Q: What sequence folds into this?
């Protein structure tokens, strides 16, 4: 009997739900482990507090003397909460977060010690960063990277460590992380959106982008997961036969949550409360053992940090519940994958959601302005948007026949489609008073204030308008949201800048009234960007054909999708906005294609190992049992044995056949890897991994999965799909 799998099965079947202590009210513990405004008021002097708030609200610099005061206050607060260490918490380009812990503790030289944490430690740190990917930036400039405090995301305590959210830059100021470009894109967007918002309300002085992510994930029993080297090392199953029952019955979705999973969620939510992550909804997803969790939306930078922190906390809490969280976009073949919908909107410092329809025609014109500009930005940059979510793991969703597809389109619903169709007919030039009144009354004024309850909602569009926000759904469940958010912010910023220039020009040159000018520019945008709008729900071949006719890109695989990131047009856009320079952009592209190759390389190795070390030996063992059986039959029946052994003989042959194919596949795959590794150019290498190495995965897997159903269940060493998905 295969020990590991059966031990794991026994363990998983004997598990009792882990008890969770709940606070009386969640609000009581919300933000308790965060150095938030309340804590700052208590631990900082008035000057220090004001300087932090100024930095948060207006991006002003914090001077060194005050930094010393702030760090002292922060340290006292942290120690009062039981912290012993501090770390600069940052987002290197590996996609996860990094920390280097230092103790507050320092000796004073006379044999005693104190707890120390000066302004220098708060504002700047030099982690030993040589092993983080940097795409050559640091070699070109200076071999050091620095982390520096980002006051717009508050410090928090995790375990006994004070975590200080920081940016990570090279000595010469190039971004080595995801946060710096995100912050710059938010600044660009704020500038552009504020200018446009002023057409409608002079009092607006700041626009924040907001993000509410929805995190999908799978939970698998920890022991079962540990019995699978592919889950341990690649976070997805590289082989495994589909279970007899999958998700066809749809009985998991919004069904009752199993107790073990529920207790995990309850503890997780308590941890989130302490950390100030405003999680709000939880439910089952479509696939068995698949779940989703979503917070109340926040300002983008904070929301991104909270999502990264959440993923970290999920791993830790799951351990206590003997579960493993799978964030991978496609952990199981043939079962729905996981995404991370990014709900995105714009909100003014006067409290208005710029993508929310309003109660008056003027407010609705404001809504339409931001709505149409976003659609236009996505249309003009659809390939770039696609590139922002490209990764080896997300290819399994976007490239496969699973929604959302690799083609970016925008869904807006029939009501808004009708409104845009009307606006397309607006007269060129100045509008007659009659037409304007008519428009305001019958088109703009007719957009209902509440589109949210609109039943005509599409669940699978990659980029959908959902009442008062856009929902970027093609983002992968493992992704750091910074990357797609940076690109979305940047292209909308650029678009709004252009819009402002065009409207102002009509006002100045053509002496148009402001709203005439706005109508005129919007009309052109609506016409120009029409091709990106797609209201259909099916994404098969018909849509691919149609999209091709429309000139939309359909980059199914990552190396192809990433190309546009280093195109001159893209670099120009980012340079103009001050979001990234050429060096930073090219470095990122380099890192991303390299990461792709490594990803495929690792998966290939794991698959080869499992197939050769687990699948083939097990199959041979079973084949030997059959051979013995056949020999026994021959002993009893003599020449007549074939009558009784024909099935066994055919299984013996089938096994040999599959083994041969697997072995051949692995040998050829290794060869293809060797060839790929010889390629110097990182992009070319990624293409080789994609086109020459990856195709072997399916081939090898196919034969392994066939063996899984041939071989005696008692012998099979790897936890099966039905066990992982239904236990
Ligand atoms: P669903 O998409 O399942 O219908 P909801 O409409 O309730 O769910 O919202 C999903 C996510 O959208 C939540 O995280 C919510 O906080 C977020 N959201 C709602 N309004 C905004 C907004 N103005 N900006 C950004 N995110 C938002
Ligand atoms: Mg959603």
A:
């Amino acid at each position: 009997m295969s020990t590991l799998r059966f031990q794991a099965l026994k363990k998983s079947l004997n598990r009792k739900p882990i008890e969770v202590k709940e606070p009386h009210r969640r609000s009581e513990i919300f933000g308790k482990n965060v150095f938030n405004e309340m804590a700052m008021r208590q631990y900082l002097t008035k000057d220090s507090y004001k300087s932090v708030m100024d930095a948060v609200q207006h991006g002003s610099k914090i001077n060194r003397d005050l930094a010393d005061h702030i760090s002292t206050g922060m340290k006292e607060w942290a120690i009062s909460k039981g912290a012993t260490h501090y770390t600069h918490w940052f987002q290197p380009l590996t996609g996860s977060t990094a920390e280097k812990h230092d103790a507050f503790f320092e000796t004073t030289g006379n044999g005693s010690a104190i707890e120390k944490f000066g302004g220098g430690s708060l504002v700047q740190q030099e982690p030993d960063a040589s092993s983080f990917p940097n795409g050559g930036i640091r070699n070109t400039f200076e071999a050091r990277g620095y982390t520096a405090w980002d006051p717009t995301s508050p410090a928090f305590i995790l375990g006994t460590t004070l975590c200080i959210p920081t940016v990570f830059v090279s000595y010469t100021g190039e971004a080595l992380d995801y946060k710096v470009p995100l912050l710059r894109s938010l600044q660009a967007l704020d500038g552009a959106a504020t200018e446009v918002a002023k057409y409608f309300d002079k009092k607006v002085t700041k626009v924040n982008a907001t993000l509410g992510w929805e995190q999908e994930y799978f939970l698998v029993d920890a022991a079962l997961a540990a019995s699978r080297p592919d889950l341990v090392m690649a976070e997805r199953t590289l082989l495994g036969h589909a279970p007899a029952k999958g998700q066809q019955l749809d009985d998991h979705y919004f069904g009752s949550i199993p107790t073990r999973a529920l207790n995990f969620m309850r503890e997780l939510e308590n941890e989130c409360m302490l950390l100030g992550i405003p999680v709000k909804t939880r439910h089952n997803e479509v696939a068995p053992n698949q779940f989703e969790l979503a917070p109340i939306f926040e300002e983008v930078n904070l929301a991104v940090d909270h999502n990264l922190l959440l993923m970290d906390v999920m791993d830790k809490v799951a351990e206590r519940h003997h579960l493993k969280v799978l964030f991978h976009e496609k952990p199981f073949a043939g079962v729905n994958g996981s995404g991370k919908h990014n709900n995105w909107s714009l909100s003014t410092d006067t409290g208005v959601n710029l993508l929310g329809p309003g109660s008056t025609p003027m407010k609705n014109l404001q809504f339409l302005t931001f709505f149409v500009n976003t659609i236009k930005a996505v249309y003009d940059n659809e390939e770039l948007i696609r590139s922002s979510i490209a990764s080896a793991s997300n290819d399994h969703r976007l490239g496969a026949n699973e929604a959302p597809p690799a083609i970016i389109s925008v869904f807006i619903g029939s009501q808004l489609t009708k409104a845009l169709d009307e606006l397309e007919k607006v007269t060129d030039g100045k509008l007659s008073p009659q037409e304007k009144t008519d428009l305001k009354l019958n088109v703009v004024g007719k957009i209902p204030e509440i589109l949210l309850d609109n039943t005509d909602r599409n669940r699978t569009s990659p980029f959908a308008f959902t009442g008062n926000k856009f929902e970027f759904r093609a983002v992968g469940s493992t992704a750091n949201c910074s990357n797609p958010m940076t690109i979305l912010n940047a292209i909308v910023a650029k678009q709004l800048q252009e819009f402002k220039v065009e409207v102002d020009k009509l006002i100045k040159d053509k002496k148009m009234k402001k709203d005439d000018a706005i109508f005129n520019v919007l009309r052109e945008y609506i016409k120009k960007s029409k091709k990106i709008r797609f209201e259909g729900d099916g994404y098969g071949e018909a849509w691919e054909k149609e999209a091709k006719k429309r000139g939309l890109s359909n980059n199914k695989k990552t190396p192809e999708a990433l190309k546009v990131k280093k195109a001159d047009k893209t670099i120009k856009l980012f340079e103009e906005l001050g979001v990234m320079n050429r060096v930073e952009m090219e470095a990122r592209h380099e890192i991303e294609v390299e990461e792709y190759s490594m990803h495929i390389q690792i998966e290939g190795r794991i698959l080869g190992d499992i197939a050769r070390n687990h699948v083939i030996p097990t199959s041979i063992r079973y084949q030997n049992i059959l051979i013995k059986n056949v020999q026994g039959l021959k002993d009893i029946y003599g020449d007549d044995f074939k009558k009784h052994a024909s099935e066994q003989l055919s299984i013996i042959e089938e096994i040999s056949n599959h083994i041969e194919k697997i072995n051949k596949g692995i040998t050829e795959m290794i060869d293809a890897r060797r060839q790929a590794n010889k390629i110097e150019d990182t992009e070319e290498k990624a293409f080789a991994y994609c086109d020459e190495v990856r195709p072997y995965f399916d081939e090898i897997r196919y034969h392994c999965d066939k063996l899984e159903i041939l071989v005696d269940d008692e012998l099979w060493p790897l936890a099966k799909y039905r066990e992982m998905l239904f236990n």
